[in-house]
Write a structure and sequence with these properties.
Layout (H helix, E strand, L loop, with lengths): L9 E5 L3 H12 L4 E5 L2 H11 L5 E5 L7 H9 L7 E5 L4 H9 L4 E4 L4 H25 L4 H13 L4 E6 L2 E5 L1 H7 L25 H5 L4 H6 L7 E5 L5 E12 L4 E8 L1 H15 L9 H18 L3 E8 L2 H8 L1 H16 L7 E6 L2 E7 L3 H16 L2 E2 L4 E2 L2 E7 L6 H16 L6 E3 L2
Parallel strand pairs: 1-2, 1-3, 3-4, 4-5, 16-17
Antiparallel strand pairs: 6-7, 6-10, 8-9, 9-10, 11-13, 11-16, 12-13, 14-15
Length: 436
């Protein structure tokens, strides 16, 4: 990647560890025009206020004294919605990544800082800034042929996908655009309408909400950065997620520059971490924390609309014997196979979770105690008749069933279902018991 693109830019670097400060600043000073330094979020915010007309990009740590990096970012966003941010952090947490996406962080670099990754992030983040400046300069040239040659050179040096739109049609695009859409000339691009390629999904910019606006460019420009997200599928069925930036290119000709920055990996990382935080790694079912979150919501909904709500707790009988006789690998195979059976017996909107060990919990919205019993009995019979793993094991399970009462707490309801399970265990196992 071309390091020259950042040589004229000014950066604010916010970091509380002195050793990282010294090392990174020395490195940056060799590559960029100027580095402003701050030791925490509050100092970074004050430095930005003092030098906001000079600072092009902000690089910040997350966890710092007085004010963390994301809180600083929120305050700076109130002043400048478009200032690019790069996050450096040792933390790889769901909440951090979710908030980063919400605040339209341009990129993130995990600590210990990989200098090559940092350079790549700086260059990619700097491209829209430098592009706008270069295009403004190109327009000052009186010779149109020279302007066009320079424009092509500028476009093709960019890592982001760039297109110029005039009267809703693409009149120019860069090499990254051609590469992504697998075309050799614009005539191959259907009708030259980029909006036709926007995927229709809630919360994303789509062709439909663009068509419903009086001026699509103003509609996009006025959106908060968090809402300037598009998904595009090319003609090879490759799907990518982008942040969309739009700038006026030549006002007299009603033309605009559209810049698409690929954030697919960041969004995928958020989705992966969110999945890991809410799902059991072995079985793929919801984990206990996620079940409790959904359970609380369902109880509130139940009490508002006075619907029925039941739960089933089940436990594999003599599971320890399986582990002892066949090993934990076979035990894990049983645990992975069981949810597949359970899902064939419950509805799509019922909630299945691994409660712990060999216990599973099923939440049945709008289901009374009698119907919950029928579901549990159906599952019991299906498990009893199933052969598990390559060992063709015969298994049984015990069940406890209970339904929500008017004055119940989540803890009360689970306690009754647990007692019902205990009753099944001590009455010979392979039974369904109810405690109402």
């Amino acid at each position: 990647m071309n390091k020259e693109i950042i040589k004229d830019l000014n950066f604010l670097f916010v970091e509380d560890e002195s050793s990282i400060q010294e090392f990174t600043v020395k490195f940056l000073q060799k590559l960029v025009n100027k580095v402003f330094l701050a030791s925490n979020g509050l100092e970074g915010y004050k430095t930005y206020l003092e030098h906001q007309n000079e600072i092009d990009i902000i690089i910040t740590d997350i966890h710092m004294p007085q004010m963390n990096g994301l809180d600083m970012l929120e305050k700076i966003r109130e002043i400048n919605k478009n200032i690019p941010f790069i996050i450096t952090t040792a933390y790889n947490e769901t909440n951090f990544l979710k908030k980063s996406v919400e605040l339209s962080v341009s990129s993130y670099v995990l600590k210990p800082i990989d200098l090559e990754q940092l350079i790549n992030s700086l260059i990619k983040t700097a491209e829209p800034i430098v592009l706008k400046r270069q295009l403004d300069e190109a327009h000052k040239i009186s010779n149109k042929n020279e302007e066009y040659k320079r424009l092509k050179s500028i476009f093709n040096s960019q890592e982001n996908i760039i297109a110029i739109i005039k009267d809703n049609q693409i009149i120019e695009a860069n090499k990254k655009f051609y590469d992504f859409f697998k075309i050799k000339k614009l005539e191959e691009f259907d009708n030259n309408h980029i909006f036709d390629y926007f995927i229709e999904e809630p919360g994303l910019i789509s062709k439909l909400n663009i068509q419903n606006s009086e001026c699509w460019a103003e509609f996009i420009k006025q959106l908060p950065e968090i809402d300037r997200i598009v998904k595009i599928k090319n003609n090879q069925n490759i799907l990518k997620t982008f942040t969309l930036n739009i700038e006026i290119y030549y006002e007299e000709e009603n033309s605009y520059i559209m810049t698409f920055t690929d954030v697919t990996s960041l969004k995928e990382k958020v989705n992966l971490l969110e999945y890991q935080a809410t799902h059991d790694a072995l079985t793929g079912t919801y984990n206990r924390n996620k079940f409790n979150e959904v359970f609380q919501k369902e109880i509130r909904r139940n009490k508002r609309y006075q619907h029925d709500l039941s739960i089933i707790i089940l436990d594999i009988d003599h599971f320890k014997t399986i582990n002892d006789n066949y090993g934990h690998q076979i035990g894990d195979e049983v645990l992975k196979a069981l949810p597949q059976i359970l899902r064939t017996c419950i509805r799509e909107h019922d909630i299945l979770a691994r409660w712990g060990g060999e216990e599973f919990m099923i939440l049945l919205p709008e289901t009374n105690i009698e119907n919950a019993f029928k579901v549990a009995e159906k599952i019991r019979v299906k498990i009893e008749n199933q052969k598990f793993t390559k060992r063709y094991l015969n298994l049984t399970s015990s069940f406890g069933v209970s339904s929500l009462k008017e004055d119940d707490t989540p803890e009360n309801l689970i306690h009754r279902a647990d007692n019902a399970l205990y009753k099944s265990k001590h009455s010979g196992r392979n039974l369904v018991s109810i405690i109402q």
